[in-house]
């Protein structure tokens, strides 16, 4: 059910230094993904950012691709795009929860990520949310990444934050604790 609630959107940040975004998309639902990409590209362009695009097989691979790019490539931020439509099994819950959790953990490690992975009940809901002239969730994810890049640059006091994460900056997952008496 659609809502008539008005939402406040922040104006796009302005950048003195160039911004490079990587869109990571799972094009399982190709038409929906193409609309998300169009929306994300338009917002990035409006902010003066350059965009690269990579495709991965599914939503579960999006955090892994972003994590690899965050460690091995030179991007200021990332836009995660895809769509998960509820089916007849609990696989939907696993994909939604684990892809979101993966992106959240990467964000907490310092990556600027806009999450545009749609989680919907049916294809009609996805089409409305992906439409660049409608809810434009792809554009919203790009805007979120751009806002996080702006905050990161403001707080680091420099252009790109190129310093590699220090051991103390990383988030430890259960079973990865180190120290005396720990495996």
UniProtKB/TrEMBL annotation:
GO molecular function: 6,7-dimethyl-8-ribityllumazine synthase activity
Keyword Transferase: yes
Lineage: superkingdom: Bacteria
EC number: 2.5.1.78
Protein residues bound to (2S)-2-hydroxy-3-oxobutyl phosphate: 88-89, 129
Active site: residue positions: 91 (proton donor)
Keywords from the UniProt entry: Riboflavin biosynthesis, Transferase
Pathway given in the UniProt record: Cofactor biosynthesis; riboflavin biosynthesis; riboflavin from 2-hydroxy-3-oxobutyl phosphate and 5-amino-6-(D-ribitylamino)uracil: step 1/2
GO CC entries: cytosol; riboflavin synthase complex
Catalysis performed (reactions): (2S)-2-hydroxy-3-oxobutyl phosphate + 5-amino-6-(D-ribitylamino)uracil = 6,7-dimethyl-8-(1-D-ribityl)lumazine + phosphate + 2 H2O + H(+)
Binding-site residues, 5-amino-6-(D-ribitylamino)uracil: 28, 59-61, 83-85, 115
One GO term of the biological process aspect: riboflavin biosynthetic process
Its biological purpose: Catalyzes the formation of 6,7-dimethyl-8-ribityllumazine by condensation of 5-amino-6-(D-ribitylamino)uracil with 3,4-dihydroxy-2-butanone 4-phosphate. This is the penultimate step in the biosynthesis of riboflavin.
Family statement drawn from the similarity comment of this UniProt entry: Belongs to the DMRL synthase family.
Name the UniProt record assigns to this protein: 6,7-dimethyl-8-ribityllumazine synthase
Source organism (scientific name): Paracoccus alcaliphilus
